[in-house]
Amino acid sequence: MTLLGRFSWFLVPSFAQIVTSSISIPMATLWLGPADYGAYALTVAFSSLASGISSLGSSFIFAQKHASSSPNVDMAQTVSTHVLLSLTMSTACAYIMVNFWSDLGLFVPNLSSIPQRDVDLAALSILPTTMWSLAADLLTLNGRARFFAAVVIAQAIVSTAALLSALIWFTQDAHALFIANAVGSLVLGAGATSELWRYRAKPDFSQFKNGAITGGAAISLSNIFDALYTVFERNLLLGFSGLASVGLYSHAQQYGGLVAVAVKALARAIWPVTLAEFKESQLKFRRTRHHWNIAYFAIGMVGIFFATIGSELIGFITHGKFSSAGPFATACIACLLVQNMGKPVTAAMYSTGRAVAFAKYVTLIGLVRLLVVVVAVPLCGAWGALVALLAYHVVFRIAMRLIVTDKVKLPYQDQWALTEFLLVAVIMGIIVIFSIEFRLKILILLAVGLTNSFLFIRLNKKY
User: pTM of this prediction?
Assistant: First the structure.
C-alpha cells in the first residue's frame, strides 16, 4: 500500500470519531455535567496507568525488530513472548485495581466517592486496551491501515451506542461513561486478538537480548510516568479547583484528542518511511519533512479555529455547560505541535537503541514536570496543568535531540511547527485578554486563516 493509501485509511477513523463525538457529546451533556466527567477522568487515569505499565515498551521492541536486517526471522516469537508478559501484567493490574481500590482511597481521599461498580468497569478495560496497544504497533509497522481503521471505527460506533443506550435506559450519571468505555475496549480487544493471532508461536524469552529488555523498559518507564503523572495531576487539580474543574479540563482534552487521532494517522502512515529514510546515507528526511509540514499547518488551522470561536462551539454542543473549556481545548491543540516535533530524532532514537541512554533523563524530565505542576496548579488551576504539559514537551524534545545528535547529525525540521504554535498562542492570548465579541472573532478567524494558508502555500517549498 502506498503512503497516501496508508494515510487515508489511518485518517478515516478520525472522521468516524468526529462524527460519533458530534452525536454523543450533545446527547450526553443533556444529563452529564463537569463533575460527572471529572469522576470518570479520575478513575480512568488509573486504568490508563495500568495499561501503560502492561505494554512493557512494545513500541520500542517491535520497531527495533522491524528495523533489523532480518525482521521476519523471529518476529513471531518476539510478539508471542511480549503478549504473554503483557497479559500477565495487565491481569495483575486489573486484580489490584478491583480489590485494593478502597485501600488506595485511604491515601487519596478523593477516590472514595467513586462507586465500586465504576472501578470494576474501568479495570475491565485494562487487558483489552493493553492488547490493542501491542496490536496497533504491529499494524503501524506493517502498514495494515485498513484493518486498523475498521477496528477503531467499530470501537467508536459501539462505544457511542453503548453510551447513549446507557443514558436513555439505565442511568443518567457518570456510570454511563464507564459502561461505554468498557464496551469500547472489548471491541479493541477483539481486533487485537485477530491481529496478534497471526504471530502465534512458542514464547522464547531469549528474544529479548541485545538491549531489548533495557530499551523496552526505557520506553515503558516513560509511558508509566506519563500515566502516573496524569493520576497525580487530576487529583491535584481536584484538591485546589474542585471536581468541576477536572471535568472541564478533561473535556477540553477530548477535543485535543480528536485532533491527535488525525495526527496519529499521519504518524502511523509515515513512520515506516521515516525509519527507512534513517537508513539513507544523507539523512535528509525529505518525505518526512514534507508530510509533517502539512500536518503542522493543519493542526495550526484547527488551533486558530478553536482560539477564536472554540468557546462558542463547545458551548453550543454542550448546552452551555462546558463553554469555559474553549481556551483549554485550544491550548491542548497547540501543545500537539510541540509534542510532534523532531520526527527524525525519534527515528534515530528507536533505530539505534538510544532509548537506553535516554532513560537516564526520563526521570529528571518527569521531575521537572512535577515541580512545575505542583507550583502552577495552586496558582492557576487548569492553566497551571497546561503550563506543566508544555514545559514537559519542550524539555523532552530538547533532551531527546541532545541524546541522539551527539552520535548522528540530523536536520532540524520543526520551523513550521514552531510558527503555527506561536500563531495559535498569540491569537488565543488576544481573544482571552481583550474579551472580543463574537462577530469580531469571526473576522479574525477569516483574516488569520486566509493569511496563514497563503503563507504556507508560498513558503512551504523553502522547507
Answer: 0.75
Between CA 463 and CA 459 the distance in angstroms is: 7
Q: Which residue in 410, 372, 416, 412 sits closest to 390, CA to CA?
A: 372
Write out the chain's pLDDT in tens, 463 residues: 565 666 676 677 777 878 888 888 898 888 888 888 888 888 888 888 888 888 776 666 776 665 554 555 577 777 888 888 888 989 999 999 988 887 776 666 667 778 889 999 999 999 999 999 888 888 877 777 788 888 989 999 999 999 999 999 988 888 999 999 999 999 999 999 988 888 876 766 665 554 445 555 555 666 677 777 888 888 888 888 888 888 899 899 989 988 888 888 777 778 777 878 877 767 778 888 888 888 899 999 999 999 999 999 999 989 888 999 999 999 999 999 999 998 888 777 777 666 556 666 777 787 888 899 999 999 989 999 999 999 988 988 888 888 777 667 777 888 899 999 999 999 999 998 888 889 999 999 999 999 999 999 887 765 4
Cα–Cα dist 163/187, whole Å: 14
| Grid cell for residue 33 | 455535567
3-state secondary structure of 210: coil
Cα 277 to the chain's mean position, in Å?
Answer: 25
Full DSSP string of 359-427: HHHHHHHHHHHHHHHHHHHHHHTHHHHHHHHHHHHHHHHHHHHHHHHTTS------HHHHHHHHHHHHH
Alpha carbon separation from 60 to 127, 147, 305, 393 (Å, rounded): 20, 22, 35, 19
